[in-house]
Structure to design on (233 residues):
């Protein structure tokens, strides 16, 4: 049993069994997963995903599947999903009516992430994606913010760092200089935990999520998660 690219090895094994044991043998192949360009998906090519969360995090695993091309998502569902075929067919029909909603990709990503990494990791990955793509982090559980911290630049800073928003933005790498930070604040280019920051805003312990996290953002795609260290002694 193996991928369809192993047919030669499989038939050689069948022949070896016949010659050495005098018994019939059978081989089974499975169609290869391929990318949109027809190249096989595997560890020997770039952009491969792994089942090991230390190599591909649950968030990255889910996002890879969310980005599946429309022409491939049906085949991926048929090959990988445990859903009944009539349910897959109905899902693909709904997807075809509103492809911009990516219903098929979301169903594929949610199911496989849960199958590979478990329900809790799948929920955290989906919630982390919501936070990083424009959703409010204020209601995110602590494990979701921890998941966010594994996917975006992050750092631990002392509580005193909250006193200087301009310096904090530079430290987070969201501004190239204090002048750049001040200009961005004047233009409402930055936000903290989803709230737009102005040049007169100050941050304090009451702004932290779960008493420790501050998600700084520039626009919708640049983020930095700060964890505020506890004061000892």
């Amino acid at each position: 049993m193996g991928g369809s690219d192993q047919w030669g090895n499989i038939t050689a094994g069948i022949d070896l069994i016949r010659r050495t044991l005098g018994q019939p043998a059978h081989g089974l192949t499975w169609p290869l997963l391929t990318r949109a360009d027809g190249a096989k998906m595997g560890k020997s090519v770039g952009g491969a995903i792994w089942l090991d969360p230390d190599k591909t995090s649950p968030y990255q695993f889910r996002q890879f599947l969310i980005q599946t091309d429309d022409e491939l998502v049906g085949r991926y569902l048929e090959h990988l999903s445990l859903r009944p075929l009539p349910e897959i067919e109905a899902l693909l029909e709904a997807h075809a009516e509103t492809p911009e909603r990516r219903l098929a990709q979301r169903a594929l990503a949610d199911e496989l992430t849960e199958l590979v990494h478990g329900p809790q990791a799948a929920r955290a990955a989906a919630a982390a994606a919501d936070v990083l793509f424009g959703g409010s982090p204020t209601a995110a559980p602590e494990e979701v913010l921890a998941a966010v911290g594994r996917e975006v630049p992050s750092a631990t800073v002392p509580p005193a760092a909250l006193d200087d928003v301009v310096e904090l933005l530079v430290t987070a790498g969201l501004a190239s200089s204090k002048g750049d930070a001040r200009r961005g604040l004047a233009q409402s280019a930055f936000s903290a935990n989803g709230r737009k920051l102005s040049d007169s805003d100050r941050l304090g312990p009451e702004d932290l999520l779960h008493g420790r996290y501050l998600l700084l953002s520039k626009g919708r795609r640049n983020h930095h998660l700060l964890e505020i260290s506890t004061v000892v002694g």
